[in-house]
Design brief:
By secondary structure, the protein is α/β, with parallel strands linked by helices. Helices cover 42% and strands 21% of the residues. It contains 8 helices and 12 strands. Strands 2-1-3-4-5 form a 5-stranded parallel sheet, sandwiched between helices. A 5-stranded antiparallel sheet has the order 9-8-7-6-12, with no helix packed on it. The protein has a two-stranded antiparallel ribbon with strand order 10-11. The two termini are 36 Å apart.
C-alpha cells in the first residue's frame, strides 16, 4: 500500500519548480507544480496535496493572498518561500496562516528537513485527534464567548458563526486548554508545534501566539484569554467549561 505524500509547489520561477520537482521526487514525494494562482486553483480542484510550498512573489495574486484563500477552506500545511530577508514578510506569512517559511536562496536539504518536520507534526496532531476520539475525552470546550469543537477543529462564537482553525492554531489552543492553569514556556510551545526537528525561533513562537490571540479577539494589553507571564511564557486565564 502506497503512502507517498503529495507536495504542490507554487512558484513562477521554472528553474525552481523543476529543481524542487526533481529533488523531492528523488526523496519519495509525488510533486505537482503551478506557476501562479489560477493554475494552483485548478490543481486544487483535482488534487488534495499533503503540503504546499508557496512563493510570495507571484504574478497576479501574491503568495499572501493565495495563502489566505487556501485557509478559507483547508488546513493543509503551507511553507512560504520569500526572496526578501525582511522579517516582516516572514511574520506576515505566519500571521495569515502559513506554518513555516524559508528564505531564498535556500538549501534543498534544509527545505526537505522542514517538509519532513511539518508532515511529522501534522501526522502527530492527527494521531492525537484520533486518540482523543477513541478515549473518553471531551469534544466541546467553552471559554470566553467561544465554543471549541475538537473533532471538527472549529470555533463557534455566541452568534453561531463557525471559524475553521489551522492545524498550528488548533494545536496551540489545545495546549493552552490542557495546561491546567500553568504557564507554558516558549520552548514547550516550540516542541508541541514543531517537534525536535523544528527551525522555530522565539519570534516565530510569539507570532503564533499573537495570531491566535487576534483570532480569538483577545487584547494582549488587557487579556481575558491568554496572558503573557514575564520570564515564564504564556498563561491561559479564561474560565473553561467542558461538555461531552
Amino acid at each position: 500500500m502506497s503512502n507517498i505524500k503529495q507536495i504542490l509547489v507554487v512558484d513562477d520561477d521554472q528553474d525552481i519548480r523543476e529543481l524542487l520537482a526533481q529533488y523531492l521526487s528523488k526523496n519519495s514525494f509525488d510533486v505537482i507544480t503551478a506557476a501562479e494562482g489560477i493554475e494552483m486553483d485548478s490543481l486544487l480542484t483535482q488534487h488534495t496535496p499533503d503540503l504546499i510550498i508557496l512563493d510570495i512573489m507571484l504574478p497576479g495574486d501574491d503568495g499572501f493572498t493565495l495563502c489566505q484563500r487556501i485557509r478559507q477552506h483547508s488546513n493543509v500545511p503551507i511553507i512560504m518561500l520569500t526572496a526578501n530577508s525582511d522579517e516582516m514578510d516572514r511574520v506576515l506569512g505566519l500571521e495569515i496562516g502559513a506554518d513555516d517559511y524559508i528564505a531564498k536562496p535556500f538549501s534543498p536539504r534544509e527545505l526537505l528537513a522542514r517538509i519532513k518536520a511539518l508532515l511529522r507534526r501534522t501526522h502527530f496532531s492527527q494521531q492525537q485527534n484520533n486518540e482523543q476520539k477513541n478515549q473518553e475525552s471531551k469534544r466541546f470546550y467553552s471559554f470566553a464567548h467561544w465554543q471549541l469543537d475538537t473533532q471538527q477543529q472549529v470555533l463557534i462564537d455566541d452568534h453561531q458563526n463557525v471559524f475553521t482553525l489551522t492545524g498550528a492554531d488548533f494545536q496551540l489552543l489545545m495546549l493552552f486548554i490542557h495546561s491546567n492553569k500553568q504557564p507554558i514556556s516558549r520552548d514547550q510551545i516550540c516542541q508541541a508545534l514543531h517537534g525536535r526537528d523544528a527551525f522555530a525561533n522565539e519570534r516565530g513562537i510569539d507570532v503564533h501566539v499573537s495570531r491566535l490571540r487576534h483570532f480569538l479577539g483577545d487584547d494582549a494589553k488587557a487579556p481575558n484569554i491568554i496572558k503573557t507571564v514575564r520570564g515564564k511564557g504564556y498563561l491561559f486565564i479564561a474560565p473553561l467549561k467542558s461538555a461531552d
